[in-house]
Each structure stands twice: as structure tokens, then as C-alpha cells.
Specification:
This is CHD3 protein. By secondary structure, the protein is mainly alpha-helical. It has a domain of 66 residues. Helices cover 66% and strands 0% of the residues.
Length: 150
């Protein structure tokens, strides 16, 4: 009802008072307003990005597009998941790794594999047409679809 990116109007609207709640205790600080505005602007931007991604995924599903499991980005995704799992289950190993512990070295190997994957990614990704082209939609039309109801 306030229009696109009218954050101040949204913040001042009583109907959306809940977004001001976390900042009540900070009101005495000198840079309070700037801090609050930056935080909320970042949150709104993240929300907008999430909506755009959601629309892109919906459109991709509608066009029956699928992710190629052999794509390097997918391998990297899998490795990230492995590293996360390893890191969580062996938090104590980072210290032991320095002392020459063998299992800790597995984490180092995974990380170096990932670094190699990352160096190959730019060339691969540059050959993929942008999402807007793959969805046959401009960024503006994605945003206008998000803005319109239904």
C-alpha cells in the first residue's frame, strides 16, 4: 500500500509496528536511527531477493527446467555439504590437525578439492545464459509479476 522501497513509510505505519519491536531497547544510542534503517533495509533487500528467487524457481518448474547433476556447481554444493557435516562433527579436530592428526587432514583435503572446483567455476558459469534469459523473462517482468497479486 506504501509503494516499492518506501521503507520509512512502512516503518511508521502502525500496522507494521512489529518491525520496530527489536529496536526498542536501543533507542538511547546515538546512531540508533541509522543502525535501525540499515538493518531493516538489508532485511527488506533479502526478502525481495527471496521473492525473486521464489518466482524464478516457480517459473523454472513451470518450464520443466531441471538442474544438471553433473554440473560443477552441483559438485561444489555436495562438497560444501560434506565440509559442513565434517566441520560440525569434528569441531575439536581443527586443533588436533595442527598436531598432525590424520582424520583432521581429511578436512584439509576436502577444502583443497573445493578450491580447485571453485577455480573451474567461472568459466563454466559464464557459458550459462542468465536466469532471466532461461526463464524468457526480463528482471523487470519478474519484479512486476511479484508486485501484482495472483
Amino acid at each position: 500500500s506504501h509503494g516499492y522501497a518506501r521503507w520509512t513509510d512502512i516503518q511508521n505505519d502502525g500496522a507494521f509496528g512489529v518491525i520496530n519491536e527489536p529496536f526498542k531497547g536501543e533507542a538511547s544510542k546515538g546512531n540508533f536511527l541509522e543502525m535501525k534503517n540499515k538493518f531493516l533495509a538489508r532485511r527488506f533487500k533479502l526478502l525481495e531477493q527471496a521473492l525473486v528467487i521464489e518466482e524464478q524457481l516457480r517459473r523454472a518448474a513451470y518450464l520443466n527446467m531441471t538442474q544438471d547433476p553433473s554440473h560443477p556447481a552441483m559438485a561444489l554444493n555436495t562438497r560444501f555439504a560434506e565440509v559442513e557435516c565434517l566441520a560440525e562433527s569434528h569441531q575439536h579436530l581443527s586443533k588436533e590437525s595442527l598436531a598432525g592428526n590424520k582424520p583432521a587432514n581429511a578436512l584439509e583435503e576436502l577444502l583443497s578439492d573445493m578450491k580447485a572446483d571453485v577455480t573451474r567455476l567461472p568459466a563454466t558459469l559464464s557459458r550459462i545464459p542468465p536466469i532471466a534469459a532461461r526463464l524468457q523473462m526480463s528482471e523487470r517482468s519478474i519484479l512486476s509479476r511479484l508486485a501484482s497479486k495472483g
